[in-house]
Amino acid sequence: MHWLVRPENIRKLWIGFIAILVLTVLAEFFVESHPHFGIDALPAFNAWFGFIGCVILVFGSKLLGMWLKRPDDYYDKQ
Amino acid sequence: MTSSDMMLHPGLLLIAGGILLAFVRGSARSALAVLVPAIALFFVWQVGDGIFGRVGFLDYQLEFVRGDRLARVFATIFTLMALVGGVFALKQESRIEVPAAFVYAGSAVGAVFAGDLVTLFLFWELMAVGSTLVIWAGGASARAASMRYLMVHLFGGVILMAGITGHVASGGGLAFEAMKADSLSHWLILIGFLINAGAPPFSAWLPDAYPEASWSGTVFLSAFTTKTAVYVLLRGFPGTEILIPIGLYMVFYGIVYAILENDMRRILAYSIINQVGFMVTGIGIGTEMALNGAAAHAFAHIIYKALLLMSAGAVLYRTGKRKCTDLGGLFQSMPLTTICGTIGALAISAFPLTSGFTTKSMISQSAANEHMMFVWLLLAAASAGVFLHAGIKFPWFVFFQKDSGMRPKDPPASMGWAMIVFSAFCIGLGCYPDPLYAILPYPVDYHPYTGAHVVSQLQLLLFSGLAFFLLLNYLKRTLTITLDLDWFYRVLGPGVALGLAEGVASGLAAFGRGAVDVFGSIRTVIFRHYGPSGVLARTWLSGQMVLWVAILLLMYLVLFYVPD
């Protein structure tokens, strides 16, 4: 088994990933920012905005998919 | 054309080289495939500022070549794309595809250099022909898609031509300059341009047709049509506000459909519309910085999108499979393809140190400068969505996820080198964007690498990554496609037409039967009077005739004397 796909290493990758996430939030306090609108001055704005944006996009897509998805040979049968 | 003008038109050179390429084989073909675009690239930079090659046409003056900064940026990236794409396609066995791709690229260069609307239109239509041939060369399964593609583009061409005719008839002149969407003819021109950009309601032609081309054909296709449309919008309709909502629609359309898609190259095709949406939004914002951003983003986008499609093409070349549900685990045996594909994925997501970071951010920054909060927020959400649908989804499902058990090798050297060159461009323009900034249409005063920009972008992208892995169960691929507005002309339209045809046919049959009845009865009446034994046709006796003539004469005499 490739080292990248061993369960113990996947666990380590997750720990490293979460550490980086925390670091990017903390880094905000060490840079000079110039918010334009007010909402972007909220703490860790880009972190939660990006996360929530993706959650909405994924579930929004799922919802649309329930209506518009078809088997992938749909047009061949037409 | 005076002698000092230009030695060679780079677009015509590519077209002629492409046609020549169709007739040679072996090493001569390989040499031409690299030399022709390289020479064309050289001549792009020999076109100075101004108008060259005036040609009389009816009462008008055509301006065959207009050189300026905007035209040169696009012509540069088009010829560079033809060059690296030509290297990638050296192993392509179809004898039509690469020649057609060069004609296609050359006409895109011609359109970009066109100084007047008629020249633009001629190259515009030639592009449609070249690109259709590239799709058609993809094999039997691509034929139907190539015809649907051609229909959409011929339709767009008709609308564009109608707009140009109206524009000229109302005294607008032939020169292709900035316009406003203030008259029917200008709207028609705008719509003609937008159809090629993949704007709604004509977005579906792109994911329908491009992924049907061969492993190398899609790479060429991703570059020219939509980005020529971006160019003409930049030149013709800068600051046209309607482009902002249109662009934002395209951005989210691309993300949503790519999230639902299973075919790896269709994911990337949807993401072309998503990326062009960013550019169209920038053109709608219309400040110098936004227009620079749109041009720079188009430049960077052509490179990383081609790189992504090259890595997908390499997978297709080696495995013959294109669905995410059949792929996975390829990183173990295709390390080069995995690395190059991942670099393309990071660049499209605008990760710091890649070309997306130094170009796309100019567009959202200009939205912020113009205090367009909603546009800015939507662009930020869309940037997160790009990472979700293209940045992680594509490499994850193709190269990682569950092991498919396949162990294909990396592709042949020519394909590998093309991927390495474009990867180098992605990182090079990300670390050192100044050469690109220097050739943009307007002076650039923008510094992408501020602490705040880097940190906020990393937060946005990495937390999108977190969302991806937490929601992985909801993103599992299924053997499905997602219906789009092309359903109306692929299913509903033909259905209605078939129904109508049947209705008309049975109507005609009924009408025919009715007609037979009616004519039958008329015929009976006529036959009664004029038939062989009819009263008006039978042979009359001479005596009877004499009697009737006598009666007629008598009546005549009576009538003659009565009035007196």
What is the number of independent domains of chain B?
Answer: 3
* Number of spatially distinct domains of chain A: 1
Largest sheet of chain B: 2 strands, antiparallel
Binned, the helix content of chain A reads 55-70%
What structural class results from the helix and strand content of chain A? mainly alpha
Computed Rg of chain B: 32 Å
- Sum up the overall morphology of chain A in one term: flat
What is the helix content of chain B?
A: 55-70%
Please provide the count of β strands of chain B: 3
**In angstroms, what is the radius of gyration of chain A?**
20 Å
Query: What is the overall pLDDT average of chain B?
Result: 92
Pair with the biggest interface:
A-B, 47 and 55 residues
Number of distinct helices of chain A: 3
What is the tally of helical segments of chain B?
Answer: 21
Mean pLDDT of chain A: 89
Measure the end-to-end span of chain B. 92 Å
How many angstroms separate the termini of chain A?
44 Å
Question: Could you spell the SSE succession of chain B in H and E letters?
Answer: HHEEHHHHHHHHHHHHHHHHHEHH
Based on the model shown, name its key terms.
heterodimer; A: mainly alpha; B: 564 residues; mainly alpha; 3 domains; 21 helices; 3% strand; elongated
Summarize the structure in short.
The complex is a heterodimer of chains A (78) and B (564). Chain A is 63% helix and 4% strand. Chain A has 78 residues and is mainly α.
